[in-house]
Amino acid sequence: MTRYTEPKYRTIFDAKENELEQLREKSAHSSWKPAYHIHPQYGLINDPNGLAYFNGEFHVFYQWYPFDAMHGMKHWAHTKSKDLVNWERLPVALVPVEDYESHGAYSGAALEVDGKLYMYYTGNIKYGPVERSANQNLAIMDKDGTITKYENNPLIEGVPEGYTGHVRDPKVFEKNGRYYMLLGAQRSDLTGAIIVYESENAIDWTFKGELNLKIDFPDSVYMLECPDFFELNGKDVIVVSPQGLKPDGHDYHNIYNVIYVLGELNLDTLTFDVEDYQELEKGFDFYAPQTFAGKNNERLLFAWAGMGEIDYPSDNEQWAHCLSIPRELDIVNGKLVQKPAQELKQLRKNAKAGDVVLETAGSVEIGIGEQYELELDFTGMEADKFGLELFASEKEGLVLEFNRSGKTVSVNREKFEAAFGGEYGFVRSSELEIDDTVKVQVLVDRSIAEVFINDGEVVFTTRVFPNEESNGIRIFADGKVSCSYEKHELAQGISF
Ligand code: FRU
């Protein structure tokens, strides 16, 4: 079958003279470029890929289309760090020039095998605007950082019977001396599934079958993307990005959403006994997360802080999206919680602390900033509604509001000149039991806020595109509330 052609399917090797320099120049001067979040110099990024702590360094790869703020020919871009916060940009790791990846080096994950980093990824193949297939491929990084595509790619050619061309995003792990590969898949009846391959040597793979995830997804779920698997505190955990979930109460309000599943995986019977599953995040811009083992074997996560199908204000500057900060996962009271990775403390400078009491309804400004971390405890609540406004100015502000009688917390990002994504709503919310103290930790970075409530019980990842004067931090309430806070400016962690 002949392959599909469209201008967006070209690689950086096809760039015209000075084209990449011009793209870099055009995007360079944005006031929205994050200072410590991994982001593209130009073009669009999406999923984190190949995450690893390998040979004493952290490696973060990610999906990248260089030529515009749109989804096109995906490359694997590459950054590395010794400390998880200061990132060095490296030459692009995977440029899809081979037949077995003719329409992009799609997402995948890494595993250290025999002292080398094996990076598994999907070769996207398109025969038309819709018709497609997929190959599963391997690239290997040596200790000296040289990356070579495996000479006998693809490892897995095409898709197994019973599935459409939507089979992708390999996650490979070792268990009891064998290797397993999970892939996101779409069944021929257009419903979503996870399929499993098995290998003795991490190179030769055989199809083992479909994972029986005992979850009754509605039939509207048409694809499961980016399956991730790990063990934490004696539990097996799957994190996956289902497409086609419908809003339900406070859940699943984004066009695409992420869930985690706790339980027990049986690799002989390919069943996963589900104890609980939940939406992982409550924010607007969180998708396709991937986890990996950090320096001390702690479970770390990066996500794409973005969402498909939505135009973002930075598109006009020829760049789009960033990754989340690295987060550490834990299971607390039977729930998967996310906290900023400890390493982020290394970016702290210029601390400022204070106490504020609001006696009656009103608001008070507690500071300004563009890249900072704020830790804040609300206590002594008599107010029913209270909260925090970030990126605040006369005209703009991101509103985090706690509602005691309603037992909810919400984030509203409507009040911006460059408001966007309104077709999917400007408010996200969660249930929350509000006791004597509410703990809030916020990381703000020019055009992103990540809000962690009560040590990661509820998390909102939210992009906003403020005017330059919108940098205020306010506390507000409709009655009495006290608040003590500590604010740290955060240093630059990655070049613009
Ligand atoms: C998720 C995803 C993956 C795919 C990649 C392509 O955002 O659609 O399933 O591999 O992005 O960029």
Explain this structure to me?
The protein has one helix and 36 strands. The protein folds into two domains: 329 residues, 5 Propeller (Tachylectin-2, Chain A), CATH 2.115.10; 147 residues, Jelly Rolls. The longest helix is centred in the N-terminal third of the chain and has 10 residues. 2% of the residues lie in helices and 52% in strands. The protein is an all-beta fold. A hairpin with a 5-residue loop joins strand 28 and strand 29. The chain binds beta-D-fructofuranose. The site of beta-D-fructofuranose has 13 residues, from strand 1, strand 10, strand 15 and strand 19.
In short:
By secondary structure, the protein is mainly beta. The chain folds into 2 domains: 12-340, 5 Propeller (Tachylectin-2, Chain A), CATH 2.115.10; 344-490, Jelly Rolls (Sandwich), CATH 2.60.120.560.
Topology:
Blueprint lengths: L18 H10 L14 E12 L2 E9 L9 E7 L6 E7 L10 E2 L3 E4 L2 E11 L5 E10 L5 E3 L13 E13 L2 E10 L4 E8 L6 E5 L1 E2 L9 E10 L2 E9 L15 E8 L4 E9 L7 E7 L5 E7 L13 E2 L1 E2 L3 E6 L2 E6 L7 E11 L3 E7 L2 E9 L5 E8 L5 E6 L4 E5 L14 E5 L6 E8 L2 E6 L4 E6 L8 E6 L3 E10 L6
Parallel strand pairs: 1-21, 14-18
Antiparallel strand pairs: 1-2, 2-3, 3-4, 5-7, 6-7, 7-8, 8-9, 10-11, 11-12, 12-13, 15-16, 16-17, 17-18, 19-20, 20-22, 20-23, 23-24, 25-36, 26-35, 27-32, 27-36, 28-29, 28-35, 29-30, 30-31, 32-33, 33-34
Bound molecules: beta-D-fructofuranose (FRU).
